[in-house]
Amino acid sequence: MKNKHRKILGMMAIGAFLSPLSVLTSCSDWNDHYENASGGSTTNSLFDEIASHEELSDFSTLIARTKVFRHHKVTETSYADILSGGQSLTLMAPVNGTFNLDSLLTVLETAQGDSAVEHFVVKNHIIRSPHSATEGRYKSLNGKYVVVTPGSIGGSEIDQANIHTRNGVLHVMKSPIEYKKTIYETLVLDEDYKNVGTGIASYNEDVFDENASVQSGVVEGVPVYVDSVIYERNKMMEAIGLLNAEDSVYSVAIPTNEGWKKAWDKAVKFFNYADNVDKRDSLQKYYTMRALLDDAVFSKTMQSSPNDSIISVQYNRSTPEYHVFYKPYESTGLLGKANSIRSCSNGFLYCYDEWPFDPTQTYFKKIEQEGEYTWNISDYTTDRCNLNVKAVLDKQVHKGSYVRLSPIKSNDAMLWNVSYRVPGVLSGKYKVHIVTLSKTIDVIDEEKIVKFKTSINYYDQSGKLQNTPWSEQTIGTEDYVNKVKDMVVAEMEFPVCQFGQTTDVTVTINGNANPKKKTETSIIYLDYIYLEPVIE
């Protein structure tokens, strides 16, 4: 793909054919297409017809020299064969002198030349099924859409319309049909944004569809196929938005190469996986790209009130504080502050010098774990600790619930452990917060001094589990403000990333009151635990 795009850049530079179209529908009854047929021969094929027009000799030569590409391999079939065959097609043929034939023939001599000229030029001028030059929107063989208006097709003026042949309709054009690039193609082909485009393109892959393929037998235990069906996919675009889909309309916010590299160098450090993680380098690359692109793509179909706010394709109603950008088109808004805007066939590319997002609102976010989510407890002393979840109608309580952690026996040493998983921790610095509630959140009673210890369980670069030393915590009766106590129990740099892993960082709470002291208790009303990102 890289070679193909380089060749197309060469064609663009010498003014060959390149720029896209619009969208199409199905054809109507065959007779309707030929009501206004102007000349032609019902015995001639489409290729015979263009070969008989002196003013189309350049395009006829190009058609004859361009071979069909299939599964990334050139075949022996030319487009002269296609236009001479039994398929019913519409052909828009530009007259001589409106494109550089020699440059295109030179491209055809390269390894990927047929693929490039076929996709960007030849297929751009052929529509499957016959269509007269009446208003409508039609899909060309390369998936682009052309709009037909009175006297023009795809923005190019018609010289002769509706020439009838035995296998379709020929329209002679005064200039080539412009190939208008998708957002993805723009990112891949434009030198200013190639770092982004190359990164996305690296996830292109061919997938063999065994069920749709035709098998001819088995040789030495291996199936042999006479017709293999292979489709292309890109898992990055499947995650962030199908930026190469002509039927979609996106807005995408992307920095130049320099801005992208600066943002990449900052983000990649947060996705440092342990040495024992399988394919750690691939995971680091994938999640760094996701970190920079997840909030950069906006689908038109998802926006209910775009002037007030827009949501990225990653928007989730369970976390409405993220993936939302307010007043986006104002001068200080996300899209309004772009340096320039590029129109593409499937939307708009908003261009910046710097990555226009805040890491703490995109990938390096606050991580929360509710105390009442007891299913996220990785370990606790079942013979010594009670867990009682309660819901309350109090706005001060996070998400309306908490858990009461208490010893089973009031006269024991009151030493118990509870460990909470905190998933998705990145290899960065966080402040670890524990938010507790006073006893008066539920029962009016005399407060006691709460005594407990905490420890953070994490993984080192080798993947070995480590624990921080126990840290003693004390909450006095005077420490509660409006019944809530938010305390930082640790600030630490996590050496490796746990995002997407089956192992998590855990926060362990240990009841640590002295049972001989009537003023102390290890009963804790735990609201939630959260990790606050620290940007340095």
In short:
The protein is an alpha+beta fold and about 525 residues long. It contains twelve helices and 32 strands.
Structure notes:
The chain contains twelve helices and 32 strands. A seven-stranded mixed sheet has the order 4-3-9-8-7-6-5. Strands 21, 24, 26, 27, 28, 30 and 31 form a seven-stranded mixed sheet that branches. Strands 20, 22, 23, 25, 29 and 32 form a six-stranded antiparallel sheet that branches. The chain starts with a helix and ends with a strand.
What profile does the largest beta sheet have?
7 strands, mixed
User: Roughly how much helix do the residues carry, as a percent range?
Assistant: 10-25%
In the predicted model, the low-confidence regions spanning at least 5 consecutive residues are: 1-37
Between the first and last Cα atoms, what is the distance in angstroms? 39 Å
DSSP strand count: 32
Summed over residues and divided by their number, the pLDDT gives a mean of 85
- CA-based gyration radius: 32 Å
Order of neighbouring strands in the sheet with most strands: 4-3-9-8-7-6-5
Structural class: alpha+beta
The rough form would be described as: elongated
The fraction of residues in strands falls at 25-35%
